[in-house]
Design a protein that fits this description.
Elements lengths: L2 E5 L3 E6 L12 E7 L1 H11 L3 E5 L1 E3 L2 H13 L7 E3 L5 E7 L5 E6 L20 E6 L6 H16 L3 E5 L4 H5 L1 H12 L3 E2 L3 H7 L5 H9 L5 E5 L5 E5 L2 E5 L12 H14 L4 H15 L12 H11 L1
Parallel strand pairs: 1-4, 1-9, 2-7, 5-6, 9-10, 10-11, 11-12
Antiparallel strand pairs: 2-3, 7-8, 12-13, 13-14
This protein binds adenosine-5'-triphosphate.
Length: 310
């Protein structure tokens, strides 16, 4: 059995009730919700029955408990997660606008997450797959931890997968950007979104960007197209999936739910086509619930959605 490992920021998120709230006036928030790209992805992979483990840092506070309780309930091995008395758990506040855009305020500086840079992570026995989210690579401490674990995983004959999550802040940071390209060049699975392609290869067409990314040598490239669905490219094969018609309540986490589902299916021996079909449905379900991982799903609810469509 392959263990899927994710490493990086764990945080709680508070979501504004009011659309268009600029996060500077009096507002009501719901939360704390468990969040952080590595956490959302690994939670979904565990719900899909994969063997999973996460490495990150949390304060020894109730916000930290929100994460460990949630991940453990989904079946994620959290035994390597650090709990630090003298640090806090990362926090984010998010507000949505009518056009689907979001605005965030992050409190991530000097949180417990940074401590993983100085703490060794013991790799689990057996086959390994490390999933890296570009969202983690803007932080120098997380880069140190991820770089070290990635080289250990590769030395053990394991695989890497990468969701570029290429935000403007990350692209401006040369060290983060360089590391993102290094990770992509070592990845067996790549999960860009259409906006990642625009950030990474400005001025190039979608096909040109896909060709460029494929030249890094991944076995499978999955292009996430939001409400438009997804495209899976595996060798000479291409599988297109239209977006499911769903009511979008909160788009955060759809990409991570997509990756978690795809990796769980692939490591459990399913074909890229089948993994893509389930991941496309998991991404659609993810947007139907408020909270970054509240829309995560198991194979039963995914199959229900797929049945409705056929
Ligand atoms: P994020 O960074 O917000 O987690 P992303 O940009 O990485 O997301 P998206 O393309 O938004 O990823 O979503 C991932 C997948 O989820 C899509 O490829 C699609 O399969 C599904 N999905 C996302 N939004 C919708 C939607 N509104 N309707 C149906 N399916 C959706």
């Amino acid at each position: 059995d392959t263990t899927i490992i994710s490493v990086g920021e764990l945080l709680v998120e508070f979501v504004s009730h009011r659309k268009g709230c600029a996060l500077r006036e009096l507002a009501e928030f719901t939360g704390p919700y468990a969040s952080g790209a590595p956490a959302i992805c690994i939670d979904q992979a565990a719900r899909m029955g994969a063997r999973t483990k996460i490495f990150g840092g949390l304060g020894a506070d109730n916000f930290g408990n929100v994460l460990t309780d949630r991940l453990q309930a989904s079946g994620v091995d959290t035994s390597a997660v650090l709990r630090l008395e003298d640090k806090t758990t990362g926090v984010a506040f998010v507000s949505y606008f009518d056009d689907g855009t979001r605005t965030f305020i992050f409190h991530l500086n000097d949180t417990a997450a940074d401590a993983i840079a100085e703490t060794p992570f013991v790799l689990p026995e057996g086959a390994l797959l490390l999933h890296v989210s570009g969202a983690s690579l803007g932080n120098a401490n997380l880069r140190v931890a991820i770089e070290s674990i990635a080289s250990q995983v590769l030395a053990r004959g394991g695989k890497i997968s990468c969701d570029p999550n290429a935000r403007a802040e990350l692209m401006r940071d040369q060290a983060g950007r360089d590391m993102l390209f290094r990770m992509m060049e070592h990845s067996s699975y790549l999960f860009p979104s259409t906006s990642d392609l625009e950030f990474l290869f400005p001025g190039k067409s979608e096909e040109q960007s896909i060709d460029q990314m494929r030249s890094y040598g991944a076995d499978i490239l999955a292009l996430k197209r939001g409400s438009q669905g997804a495209l899976i490219i595996s060798g000479e094969d291409r599988f297109e999936f239209c977006g499911h018609k769903v009511q979008e309540v909160d788009p955060t986490g759809a990409g991570d739910a997509f990756c978690g589902t795809f990796l769980a299916m692939i490591t459990q021996g399913h074909s890229p086509e089948s993994a893509g079909r389930y991941a496309n449905a998991a991404g659609a379900l993810a947007v139907t619930r408020r909270g970054p991982m509240e829309g995560n799903s198991d194979s039963e609810s995914i199959e229900q959605l797929l049945k409705l469509k056929s």
